[in-house]
Write a structure and sequence with these properties.
Helix content: 40-55%
CATH superfamily of the largest domain: NAD(P)-binding Rossmann-like Domain
Oligomer: single chain
CATH architecture of the largest domain: 3-Layer(aba) Sandwich
Strand content: 5-15%
Number of helices: 21
Distance between the termini: 79 Å
Number of strands: 13
CATH topology of the largest domain: Rossmann fold
Strand order of the largest sheet: 10-9-8-11-12-13
Length: about 475
């Protein structure tokens, strides 16, 4: 039984529709409802009385100070304590600062002091990524629970038993799910569990900002940030994920959680300067990208610019704190005529920026455009016919804020192409040719090398000719 304080959201769910775009979520809702395992109600009291386990999944938005606003948690605690008629296990699923569980336990005791019921509290943070949330839920790498007693742990193990045992129905994979190790279930204290969530998200934000500073360095030195981060990612101590340079992180989770974590640290006398710098780096990404746009266009006023991507990441319609929204807002303020497209997020973007022209067909975005900006790395944009796009643009200029496309291919198609932390196409093409030569040479020598020794012919061929030897400089004393 699910409830929400937004009647329109409940009405949407009762009509069989998801209020957000998330791959496979519609299927999950329809299957669970048809099996009688899922229902919705506008009555919070009815929802509280319906279950033995109550998950709190309310928002914890940032205050102006950056601290998490926990008023919704407090309100839910009051409702649970006053509406419950039997003992409950109250599970905080919302992302909250450490020690919130202890405060929630006190609040439940205060608000429920007259009913005499036992209301236990546990922490169970979620690690779902927008765009892959259903798959992440069905195939988690870990399930973290923070409890104070064995009974709470036992109840949570029973809730997650189908996932732990692999017996759940997975809507993501049409056939059998690919083989994967069973998820870890980590049992900790409530405070540790809460800290794990904030620490995980903040570390991901650090990796993104690190990759972006690295991209700035690569641009100055003529290196390729993708070559650098790819090599780094092969180290199992580092890993490849979240090392993509670009417009920085957005959405509602990472920016909010980084701020809340910094404020939490400050509240107990710890200076988390590392995270403050990650925030600063992230705030500068849109400005640096727009500087590149201005350099490429010279005069931006009255220019027509197409924007591909509005959501903060692909496979979602979430535009909250999306870099694309800030890019469009600043361009429009400078007199740019903006036309934008996104496979899923246009309606939500229109609610924020109503004066922008939105078109469903991404090819229409490029028509007569002086520049085309890529601000979300949708796979649909990668697969577009870029020759066709080149032919309809007023000027074939692409500024790729997500490093979605290949610089060499774009140059070959006749585009002016700019990306983040990657060298010009000619330099990259030269490196590719050199790499191909090395690979060919290694392939030719591989049979010889596999024998463990060089043949006499190979040795003779490797030795310099007598004419070459006469040109060699004599060795200096002490040099081998």
């Amino acid at each position: 039984m699910c409830t929400d304080n937004d009647p329109a959201r409940i009405a949407t769910l009762e009509a069989g529709r998801a209020p957000i775009y998330e791959p496979h979520l519609d299927t999950v809702l329809a299957t669970a409802r048809s099996a009688g395992r899922l229902a919705f109600t506008r009555s919070a009291g009815e929802a509280v009385r319906a279950g033995d386990n109550i998950f709190i999944c309310v928002g914890t938005p940032p205050r102006q100070t950056g601290e998490a606003d926990l008023s919704a948690i407090d309100n839910v605690a009051r409702i649970i304590a006053t509406e419950a008629r039997t003992p409950k296990l109250v599970i905080e699923k919302s992302t909250v600062p450490a020690q919130t569980g202890l405060q929630l336990k006190r609040a439940l005791a205060v608000y429920g002091r007259k009913n005499g019921l036992t209301l236990r509290v546990a922490s169970n943070p979620e690690f779902l990524r927008e765009g892959t949330a259903v798959e992440d839920f069905m195939h988690p790498d870990r399930i973290v629970v923070g409890v104070e007693d064995e009974g709470s742990e036992k109840q949570l193990r029973e809730i997650y038993r189908p996932i732990l045992e692999g017996s759940r129905h997975c809507p993501v994979h049409t056939a059998a799910c690919p083989p994967a190790p069973a998820p870890h279930m980590l049992v900790t204290s409530m405070t540790s569990s809460e800290l794990i969530k904030h620490a995980s998200n903040s570390f991901l934000a650090l990796k993104i900002s690190y990759a972006n500073v690295l991209a700035d360095l690569c641009e100055r030195l003529g290196a390729d940030v993708e070559e650098v981060t790819s090599a780094m990612g092969l180290d199992p101590r580092i890993g490849p994920q979240f090392l993509r340079a670009g417009l920085g992180f957005g959405g509602f989770c990472l920016p909010k959680d980084v701020q809340a974590f910094v404020r939490l640290a400050e509240s107990v006398g710890v200076d988390f300067g590392l995270l403050k710098e990650a925030e600063r780096v992230n705030r500068r990404r849109v400005g640096l990208f727009l500087d590149e746009v201005r350099r490429a266009l010279w005069v931006v006023k009255d220019k027509q610019v197409g924007v591909l991507g509005l959501a903060f990441k692909p496979n979602t319609d979430d535009v909250r704190l999306a870099p694309a929204i800030e890019v469009i807002r600043q361009l429009a303020a400078e007199g740019v005529q903006v036309r934008a497209s996104d496979p899923q997020a246009m309606e939500k973007a229109r609610a924020i920026l109503p004066d922008v022209e939105y078109v469903r067909d991404p090819y229409e975005v490029a028509k007569n455009a002086d520049a085309l900006l890529i601000t979300t790395e949708w796979e649909e944009f990668r697969r577009m016919d870029w020759k066709r796009i080149r032919d309809v643009m007023a000027r074939p200029l692409v500024l790729d804020g997500r490093n979605l496309l290949d610089p060499v291919q774009m140059k070959a198609l006749g585009f002016e192409y700019y990306s983040v932390g990657r060298p010009d196409a000619q330099a990259k093409l030269k490196r590719r040719r050199n790499s191909a030569i090395v690979i060919q040479a290694f392939t030719a020598l591989k049979p010889v090398l596999q024998e463990g020794h060089l043949s006499k012919t190979a040795i003779l061929e490797a030795r310099p000719s007598s004419r070459d030897r006469t040109k060699r400089q004599p060795l200096e004393p002490g040099n081998p």
